[in-house]
């Protein structure tokens, strides 16, 4: 009887697709012995909703779901049709899984109490950041934070379950819908990125153990607001120009952050005369990205204080955000606080 053996030199004919997100989550489940699998399932629920939103964004131009919805959200911003669609998709996924007791969403005025007193987690989410860019085919994203509730399981949710500082996050991540769709997340044990393979319907590990460069040559800021910046920000941007750094600003937070995370650089959305408290939302934008960047070796600040140390006072609280490579963020902090620098030096 003839037998054959696998020929190693033929392996180049079929490329390896790598490890799936689902398998990766299962392998890492031992990092959370207290979670009994709920956190792992919650991450799968988010990934499923992201796949559906990815499908919707890819067909937006054909299905007439681009453009404005005709209403404004609690931020006073005009809702896009895809804002509403993404919010519905993530709400359904998070409510049906059974792991979540409450949701804070950019598109909802108040806390969404799921009446699931056995749920262990609270999720804060921006379902579709930068959705106004969809009409011009620019990358957009989803940002999420996951917190473990403080009140006893089985009891109604309390305010303390919702209003937690970013340092209490057990997981956070974002989905970037662009030339390829990526899910990047951390559970406090490093940052890993997964790229969506459309033909297989799976996220595959493509960027293991992401490390943000200590410095970089890219700065990202809306220079149209230059006349409204405080002196320290203006001085920093001027120094970037003198060093011939590259100005790269997409205006889609997830896309700008993702580029700088991988290549090194800094993203700034400082306070302005019009928005003295900043414009980005603390609970479902800044906190998640701050957790990710710190896990990757970078830094996130509001100018004087670490983002993750800020105690939120309301659901839609805004904050300045300076985030990216640690050396660049610390340079901004020194220029914004020259007197403190003199005292400590």
UniProtKB/TrEMBL annotation:
It is found in: Cytoplasm. Mg(2+) 1 binds at residues 106, 126, 128. Residues 19-208 form the Fructose-1-6-bisphosphatase class I N-terminal domain. It is an enzyme of class 3 (hydrolase). Substrate binds at residues 129-132, 222, 249, 267-269, 279. Keywords: Carbohydrate metabolism, Cytoplasm, Hydrolase, Magnesium, Metal-binding. Binds 2 magnesium ions per subunit. Its cofactor is Mg(2+). Its EC number is 3.1.3.11. This is Fructose-1,6-bisphosphatase class 1.
């Amino acid at each position: 009887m003839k037998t054959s053996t696998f020929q190693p030199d033929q392996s180049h004919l079929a490329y390896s697709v790598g490890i799936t997100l689902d398998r990766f989550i299962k392998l890492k489940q031992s990092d959370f012995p207290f979670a009994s699998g709920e956190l792992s399932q919650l991450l799968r629920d988010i990934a499923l909703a992201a796949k559906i939103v990815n499908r919707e964004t890819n067909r937006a131009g054909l299905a007439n779901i681009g453009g404005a919805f005709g209403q404004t959200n609690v931020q006073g911003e005009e809702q896009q049709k895809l804002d509403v669609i993404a919010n519905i998709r993530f709400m359904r996924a998070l409510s049906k899984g059974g792991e979540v007791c409450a949701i804070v969403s950019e598109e909802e005025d108040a806390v969404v109490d799921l009446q699931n007193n056995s749920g262990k987690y609270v999720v804060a989410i921006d379902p579709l950041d930068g959705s106004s860019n969809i009409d011009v085919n620019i990358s957009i994203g989803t940002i999420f934070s996951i917190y473990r509730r403080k009140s006893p399981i089985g009891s109604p949710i309390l305010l303390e379950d919702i209003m937690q500082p970013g340092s209490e996050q057990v997981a956070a991540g974002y989905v970037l819908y662009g030339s390829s769709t990526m899910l990047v997340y951390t559970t406090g044990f490093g940052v890993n990125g997964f790229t969506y393979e459309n033909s297989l319907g799976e996220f595959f590990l493509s960027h293991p153990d992401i490390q943000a460069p200590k410095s970089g040559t890219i700065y990202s800021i809306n220079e149209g607001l230059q006349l409204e910046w405080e002196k320290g920000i203006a001085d920093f941007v001027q120094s970037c120009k003198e060093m011939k750094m590259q100005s790269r600003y997409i205006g889609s937070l997830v896309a700008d952050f993702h580029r700088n995370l991988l290549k090194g650089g800094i993203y700034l959305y400082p306070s302005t005369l019009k928005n003295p408290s900043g414009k980005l939302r603390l609970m479902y934008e800044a906190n998640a990205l701050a957790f990710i960047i710190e896990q990757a070796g970078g830094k996130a600040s509001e100018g004087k204080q670490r983002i993750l140390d800020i105690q939120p006072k309301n659901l839609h609280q805004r904050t300045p955000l300076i985030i990216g490579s640690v050396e660049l963020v610390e340079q901004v902090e020194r220029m914004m606080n020259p007197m403190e620098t003199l005292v400590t030096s």
